[in-house]
Structure formats: C-alpha cells, structure tokens
Amino acid sequence: MTAPRLSLSLFAAAALVATGLLACRSGPGGGSSPDAFQAQVAAGARVYAAHCAECHGASGGGTDRAPALVGAGALPKSPRDWQDREGEFRTALDVAVFATRNMPPRASDRAKLATEDYWAVLAFALSANGVQLEEAVGPDNAGDVVLHP
Ligand code: HEC
Predict the structure, then answer these.
(1) 84: Cβ below 6 Å to ligand 1?
(2) I need a surface site. Which of 23, 36, 84, 91 has the fewest CB within 10 A?
(3) In whole angstroms, what is the distance from residue 76 CA to residue 36 CA?
(4) How far does the centroid of ligand 1 lie from the alpha carbon of residue 18, in Å?
(5) Residue nearest to atom 26 of ligand 1 (CA)
C-alpha cells in the first residue's frame, strides 16, 4: 500500500487530536467553547481578507505571489527549496510563530496587526482546512494541534 496522502490525512488527524486533547483546556480570553473558536474564525476571516488575501488568494488557495494556506498540500512540514522559511511546521504553533514574525512580509504591515489578529487568522486557516477546535486557539493549545507528526 502506498503512503497515505499527507495533505488529506493531515488535517483530519489534527481535528481528532484537537477535539480529543483540547476539549477541557481554556484558550486565551477564556474562550473555552466551540463558540469562542467560531468567533475567532469569523474575526480571522476579516483579518485575512484585509491583510493576507492579496498575496495568498481570496480563499487561501495561493497566487503567483505567495503559497496556498488552504487546501491539499498547503502548509507543508518542510519549506520548499525557494522559500525563506527555515523552520518546520509540525504544529499550528509553528505556523503561528512564523506568521507573527514574518507575515505580512513588510514590518510596517505587521505593525497594523495585534496578537489576537494572528490567533484569529490562524483559527480561520485551521477552519478552512477542516479543523474545528472546541475552544479558541492560542499560545496554550496551538502546540497540541499537530499538523505533521
Ligand atoms: C505581500 C504578500 C504577502 C502578504 C500580504 C502575506 N503573505 Fe504570507 N507569504 C508571502 C510569501 C512570499 C510567503 C513565502 C515566504 C517564504 O519564502 O518562506 C508567505 C508565506 C506564508 C506562510 C507560510 C506558508 C508555507 O507554506 O510555508 C504563512 C503561514 C503565511 N504566509 C501567512 C500569512 C498571513 C496569515 C498573512 C496575513 C496576516 C500573510 N501571510 C500575508 C507573502 C505574503
């Protein structure tokens, strides 16, 4: 049997891990409910549209300016040859740290975003990839959302 398609299995696995491990832990701002996660997703969609979509595409599918953040093959564990990214994306926390430090690429654009905006846009990206958490995502639980074991 050939190896399972990572892109398809990845987020399904993350969803199981997330619902299993995170159900009883609280995220930032006391957001320990599925509603809190959904509120983050909604806020994140607005952040994404205003600050990320021009390069990553309206639905996150990527453009000639930036790679996809949503869909099969998005957010691969290892950076592609052409990327500046050096670290691996093992968990959602790795993605959050990378985005917070590097996205958008211009520091003056990053300065317009608050920490909550980054967690919201991460929630949006997880949701768009099929991951639903039982609470808001934040620094206490993003490391438990395993994208690539
Ligand atoms: C001006 C264009 C631009 C904007 C705006 C932008 N990005 Fe990016 N993004 C890029 C480029 C280019 C890369 C590839 C960086 C590299 O070489 O590793 C990237 C890479 C990424 C990656 C890593 C993807 C991967 O597969 O390694 C994430 C996550 C990401 N961006 C998130 C965001 C988020 C979230 C926002 C909005 C807050 C955003 N980006 C806004 C251009 C942009």
Answers:
(1) yes
(2) 84
(3) 27
(4) 24
(5) 75
Kindly report the backbone phi and psi dihedral angles of residue 91, in degrees, each rounded to the nearest multiple of 5, phi listed first: -130, 170
pLDDT digits (tens), the chain, 149 positions: 443 333 434 444 454 444 444 444 444 444 789 999 999 999 999 999 999 999 999 999 999 999 999 999 999 999 999 999 999 999 999 999 999 999 999 999 999 999 999 999 999 999 999 999 999 999 999 999 999 99
Kindly give the distance from the C-alpha atom of residue 66 to the centroid of ligand 1, in angstroms, as a whole number: 6
Contact 121, 107 (CB under 8 A): no
* Nearest atom of ligand 1 to the alpha carbon of 54: 5
Q: What are phi and psi of 137, to 5 degrees?
A: -90, 140
Domains and CATH numbers, the chain: 6-144 (1.10.760)
- The residue whose CA is least distant from atom 4 of ligand 1 is 104
> Which one of 10, 40, 55 would you pick to mutate in the ligand 1 pocket, going by the greatest count of ligand atoms within 8 A of its CB?
55
- Tens digit of each residue's pLDDT (9 = 90 or more) over 93-110: 999 999 999 999 999 999
